[in-house]
Amino acid sequence: MTFSLLLEYTPKYCRGYAVGMVWVSWYIGEALEVTLGYALEWGNDGKWRYLCAISSLPSWFLLFFWATNIIIIPESPRFLMISGQQRKGWDALQYAAEENQSILFRQKLIGATTNKDWVQATSREARGSITALLGPQLRVTTTLLWIIWFVAGYGFYGLMFLLPEFLREKMSLTAEHFGVLVSSAGACGGVICGALLSESLGRRPTFVVGFFFAGVFIMLINVNVDAMWLVVFAMVARFFTGVYEAVWYTYTPEVYPTSVRALGFGMCSFWGKVSGLVAPLVSTYVNEAAGPLATTAVTMCAFFTGAVAAMNLPVETKGRPLTDYVTEGERPVDEGTLQGVDPSDPSDPDAEDNPSFHGADSSEQAPFIVNETQ
């Protein structure tokens, strides 16, 4: 839900950067957690209680800030508009315009979202429908994304299962956790690189690069080298897991329309969590039955499967406007624009000849929100 809401507010030219920065904060938090664990001796002598209590403090602070309106996260105007809550959607856009020091042409917006075409389109659209995810328009995308999320989660948790096993053979407990901390730094660099690549190469090529090289470098941790090189290989492997992590949380909410975006993203996340349950069980069984090399090979195959699935995704979402409806032919209004308004009509409160008109385009399609500097 967090990433769906974020992308519905973020302009298309920087959505990849925005999600990448969220992942940077994730790995900064992971590094702080490892450092906190080191300071509390990894929970020895009952200190795990203090570790859990301190780790929960940020969540409590965030809840307090929300309850006291210190932090305000408004509802998505896209969701409000297509769910029949137009008035709340108008107010949310008005709030956004005021925060951005822009002008909202409210009368045009009201006219566009209360006309017969809009009402008919929003009433026909099935919101939150699993059948829509598996319908003809989204079936291929949904199936491939479920595969990608499953193998991506399996690869990540498989790597996190294997890494301590290999480090433990060459390092003390303290050095082992230091190795995990260093590998987290690699993942942090990976999400930054992934965000940059996704906005230059595109989402699908970045997916493939991340999955493929993560599979290559996870096999290198089997090489008989000293502890330093083992940490380097692990850091590079996690770098490339960071590359694809910067994309899957961007691509998934981008490719689904607003009417099913939260459901589609949630179902993909579900398969990622299932893989988190499966990976340790499978890795433990394979490790005991066939050894670490076979366990690593299974994880490598998961990464390569993700690369193949990403190559076959039917839609590239880089620079693509977010959609609101599964069937785009039913959209009554183009993204961010207004159709069918005569800008030369003085009776229109936002028309070009009207004294209250403030700098909107004199074309047939005029934007809802215009920056005051324009």
CATH classification, class level of the largest domain: Mainly Alpha
Overall tally of domains: 2
Helical residue percent band: 55-70%
Gross morphology: globular
CATH fold-level assignment of the largest domain? Growth Hormone, Chain: A
Number of helices in the DSSP assignment: 14
Second CATH tier, the architecture of the largest domain: Up-down Bundle
* Strands in their spatial order, largest beta sheet: 1-4
Largest sheet: 2 strands, antiparallel
Distance between the termini: 34 Å
CATH superfamily of the largest domain: MFS general substrate transporter like domains
Beta-strand percentage range: under 5%
**C-alpha Rg, in Å?**
24 Å
Unreliable spans: 329-374
Write the layout of secondary structure elements.
Blueprint: H1 2-9, H2 15-39, H3 48-67, H4 77-82, H5 86-99, E1 102-104, H6 106-112, H7 116-124, H8 130-133, H9 139-168, H10 173-200, H11 203-220, H12 227-255, H13 261-290, H14 292-311, E2 337-338, E3 366-367, E4 369-371
Antiparallel strand pairs: 1-4, 2-3
What does this entry look like structurally?
The chain has about 375 residues and is mostly helical. It folds into 2 domains: about 1-40 and about 130-310, MFS general substrate transporter like domains (Growth Hormone, Chain: A), CATH 1.20.1250.20; about 85-125 and about 335-370, no CATH class. It is built from 14 helices and 4 strands. The chain has a two-stranded antiparallel ribbon. Strands 2-3 form a two-stranded antiparallel ribbon. The longest helix has 30 residues, at about 140-170. The protein is globular, with a radius of gyration of 24 Å.
